[in-house]
Amino acid sequence: GTTYNGPKIKSSVIRLVKGTFEQHGISMPDEAREVIFPQGVPVHMVEQITQAPAEVDKASEQQASIKPDMVKVSGEGDLTSEEKPLRNQARQARIPEEGVDLLE
Predict the structure, then answer these.
(1) Cα–Cα distances in angstroms (integers) from residue 78 to residues 5, 33, 48, 62, in the given order
(2) Among 15, 55, 88, 104, which is most exposed with the fewest C-beta within 10 angstroms?
(3) Which of 81, 77, 83, 76 shows the shortest CA–CA distance to 14?
């Protein structure tokens, strides 16, 4: 929390995940809905498919393709925490009780 701003990091991660989903044709669901299956849903077990080595290499190549300028955007700023500047502002601020009472 003292190095990075949590909400900015969360925003960046959500944006990166959403972008990656879109690149791979994965759609996000709409708002939550309840679907009722009165007769149930048949389930069929299939054998687990393992990833081919070429696919693993492709996945690591895509991960390596995330560049620093993709991690942050201008709306998120530089992702650093504002703790130090805020503490400095607080130290420089006057105590309200020390000022002139304008209501007298």
Answers:
(1) 9, 37, 42, 23
(2) 104
(3) 76
Q: Which of 6, 13, 3, 22 is nearest to 72 (CA)?
A: 13
Q: What is the pLDDT of residue 35?
A: 80
**Token reading at 43:** 């389930």
- Asked if 71 and 16 touch (Cβ cutoff 8 Å), the reply is yes
Joined together, the tokens standing for residue 103 give 């209501």
Provide CB contacts within 8 A for 83, sequence distance 6+. Answer: 1, 2
pLDDT, tens digit, 9 for 90 and up, residues 46-78: 776 665 556 655 655 555 566 666 677 777 777
**For residue 4, what are the contacts with CB-CB under 8 A and spacing of at least 6?**
79, 80, 81
